[in-house]
């Protein structure tokens, strides 16, 4: 039975992943011949997946990966630290309603949603939501 040896690109991806990973934060590096310039990183479950050009050198790949991973972790930390519960959001809405609108605004529910990243809020006047 013959073992298939990894290609140079696969070895480079493995070396980069080994240098970027920690026990608490595994990193998977995927190199693509089609990708020419950009590097991206994203969470897939508990693993950070970094996508990069196959032609990029190992040192440059690791240096760019460290910056991307730090930014990704900072964003994840910020999102979990600032997350409020629906009860906290309701209390904040009531306080702002009293302060700025003299208690005139009425609603049926206020909830957080995960997919709203660029708007401050959304409402449907007919339902009060």
Descriptive labels:
elongated; 3-stranded mixed beta sheet; hydrolase; 14% strand; 2 domains; 3 helices; 129 residues; alpha+beta; single chain
In words, what does this structure look like?
The protein is α+β, with helices and mostly antiparallel strands. The chain has two domains: 8-81, no CATH class; 84-117, no CATH class. The chain has three helices and three strands; from the N terminus they run αβββαα. The protein has helices spanning 8-20, 58-81, 86-101, and strands at residues 27-32, 40-44, 47-53. A three-stranded mixed beta sheet has the order 1-3-2. A hairpin with a 2-residue loop joins strand 2 and strand 3 (47-53). Helix 1 (8-20) packs across helix 2. The chain is elongated and about 75 Å long. The mean pLDDT is 86.
Secondary structure topology:
Layout: H1 8-20, E1 27-32, E2 40-44, E3 47-53, H2 58-81, H3 86-101
Parallel strand pairs: 1-3
Antiparallel strand pairs: 2-3
Keywords: Hydrolase
GO molecular function, one term: hydrolase activity
Biased composition (Low complexity): 1-19
Briefly summarize what is shown.
GO terms for molecular function: hydrolase activity. 41% of the residues lie in helices and 14% in strands.
Biggest sheet character: 3 strands, mixed
Strands of the largest sheet, in order across it? Answer: 1-3-2
Number of domains: 2
Q: Beta-sheet strand percentage?
A: 5-15%
**Tell me, what's the shape?**
elongated
Number of strands: 3
Termini, distance in Å?
65 Å
Low-confidence stretches: none
User: Structural class, from helix and strand content?
Assistant: alpha+beta
The proportion of residues forming helix, as a percent range, comes to: 40-55%
The number of distinct helices, counting runs of at least 4 residues, comes to 3
Mean pLDDT: 86
Please compute the radius of gyration using only Cα atoms: 23 Å
Order of helices and strands: HEEEHH
């Amino acid at each position: 039975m013959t073992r298939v040896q990894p290609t140079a690109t696969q070895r480079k991806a493995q070396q980069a992943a080994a240098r970027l990973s920690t026990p608490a934060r595994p990193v998977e590096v995927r190199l693509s011949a089609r990708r020419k310039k950009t590097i991206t990183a994203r969470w897939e479950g508990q693993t950070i997946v970094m996508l990069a050009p196959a032609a990029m050198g190992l040192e440059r790949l690791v240096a760019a990966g460290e910056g991307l991973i730090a930014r990704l972790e900072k964003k994840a930390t910020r999102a979990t630290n600032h997350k409020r519960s629906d009860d906290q959001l309701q209390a904040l809405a009531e306080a702002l309603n009293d302060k700025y609108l003299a208690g005139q605004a009425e609603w049926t529910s206020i909830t957080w949603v995960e997919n709203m990243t660029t708007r401050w809020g959304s409402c449907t006047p007919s339902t009060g939501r």
